[in-house]
From TrEMBL:
GO molecular function terms attached to this record: ATP binding
Keyword annotations from UniProtKB, A to Z: ATP-binding, Nucleotide-binding, Transport
Bilayer-crossing regions: none
Stated name of the protein: ABC transporter ATP-binding protein
Positions of the ABC transporter domain: 5-234
Pfam families tied to this protein: ABC_tran
Keyword ATP-binding found: yes
Signal peptide boundaries: none
UniProt record similarity statement: Belongs to the ABC transporter superfamily.
Amino acid sequence: MTTALSIKDLSKTYDTGLTALKSVDLEIRRGEILALLGPNGAGKTTLISIICGLVKPSTGTVTVEGHDIVADFRQARQLIGLVPQELHVESFETVWDTVTYSRGLFGKKPAPALIEQILRDLSLFEKKDERIMALSGGMKRRVMIAKALAHEPRILFLDEPTAGVDVELRKDMWRLVNRLRDTGVTIILTTHYIEEAEEIADRVGVIRKGELLLVEDKVELMRKLGQKQLTLDLQQPIDQIPEALSDYELALDMAGTRLTYQYDTAAQRTGIATLLSALSSAGITVKDLDTEQRSLEDIFVSLVEEEAP
Ligand SMILES: Nc1ncnc2c1ncn2[C@@H]1O[C@H](COP(=O)(O)OP(=O)(O)OP(=O)(O)O)[C@@H](O)[C@H]1O
């Protein structure tokens, strides 16, 4: 594994006394897409801001492709592209000038062909001569992404990139993210949209109250924590779950016509076969059945709830 980003024992206590990060350890591989999930105020932006040199850590170290973000700030920062949560783009400049200027800030030689490609990828090329102030909010957000990419970063941070953007931009963005990843760029995104993490991430980190609760391969996480639910629609309503079925984790709906059964997909035995035969022995006829996999959203909600004091 080649490490793109290494975070060790990172903590941050703001001047107000609030501890936003508590001893975070995290290794991010080159070329992976990591989604950081967490409720409001979890510390996601603080983490990104420290890595980008915008906030000073209280303890700990961060290295970007081997460069320490404090001792070797310029080298480390040059490898990073940041698309912040807030829109702040120069109003009077044109799209082209703004994006070109961003590249220049990192001391990189002009590369008009590259800037053109970035603008085309973001469906911004037709707007290249327009002033930013004349653009819609969605277009401004595209400009922010273009600015972050102009100096060819190896690690791209997207802080809640799709909050309030339309479906079109979201799709463009994920296409671009996948293409960047194919060229070896490491992508770290924070999001409230769990389906976004589910769709795009290779690994998912869950952060809450400044603590990294887990970091796990997405597929593995879903396999480990994912439970399936079996829904059984009954031919005849029942008043209560028969005593003979008390060993199973069953729930009966209000109408008495639907039983639900939670089971672990990773378990050796799901218990479905014995459950069905026990139902039959109890004289309960099943009209229809259906299974449903828990989504990452369910997993996230249950994790955050479980850990709550
Ligand atoms: N400059 C600051 N001074 C004091 N406290 C701060 C500062 N910036 C952030 N905080 C606090 O630190 C905690 C973590 O905030 P942060 O913005 O990192 O969370 P987040 O996970 O990005 O949240 P959101 O999803 O709402 O953006 C919050 O309680 C916040 O109020």
